[in-house]
Known about the structure:
By secondary structure, the protein is of the alpha/beta class.
Amino acid sequence: MKLADVGNTPFVEVYGLLPNGNRLFSKCEYMNPTGSHKDRTYLNIIENMEKQGVIRKGMTLIDCSTGNGGAALAWIGREKGYKIIVFMPEGMTDERKQQILSFGADIIETPKETFLMGAAIAADEYRKKHPVGEVCFLDQSSTLLNKSAWHACGQEIVSALHRQRVVPDLFICSIGTGGTFCGIADILRREYKNIKTIGIEVDRSAPLYASRRGEVFEHKSHNLMGLGAGVLSVNTIPELIDEVRVVDGHAAWDRMKKFIAEYNFGIGPTCGANLMVCEDVARLESGKNIVTLFFDSAWKYESRWEGVYPDYAEAE
């Protein structure tokens, strides 16, 4: 694997999936080197912080993650000469923890009760205990370098659509930190003035959905890791999100498995969430071109293949 291999992932049409003459196109981000979209995020963050003089080789870089981001950071950090520490809520998949460790990074697990918020607090406390210039907390949720990482992906999608002479009608995608969704949506909105964007949150932790309905938000444990951290990131730009829908985590896992069996795309459960909403929209539309994303790889979830995280099962 080389850093130059990040990005330029395949843009494919998924034939025969949607009814009513609707067409589905997806950017296959799970085919990035570490198996997820987070390679783009961390490569952009680190390279821009290097240019700004904020970080330099030999420093320790830290961040919090449920796994995909941690693996991307661990690999890119190793390639660039940094020590990496990933703060991770306990109970994540064995595959993602093993991948992080295989890249030479350390993992500090934080209590399940506080989920990602607790991991972020622990990372910040770690930073404060070290001299300035020795440790940098990248904090992907709080830097707009997260969102800007996805402008390149948006441009790749636009170029692919131009080559195929396709004009997209909808962009439908799950929202985690919001950087992926909003970075792509920003570019698509500039190119296609009439495109509609639909963001997806897991029903048990949907702060944007609650806000738009005037409801009090309450975070509950769920099984769609990567979504539903419990807070809205600065990378979630509401003006770029026309509509918000929620999905049930277990239904998303089931949709992922059925899709893998039928189409042989090795995608993860948040991709199942994307497929569910694309299909729901397509039942009420006809002749539309829909763009989505396949975030990460199925192999990262084999130890939780029933869609249950034991440390969080009670609350589910």
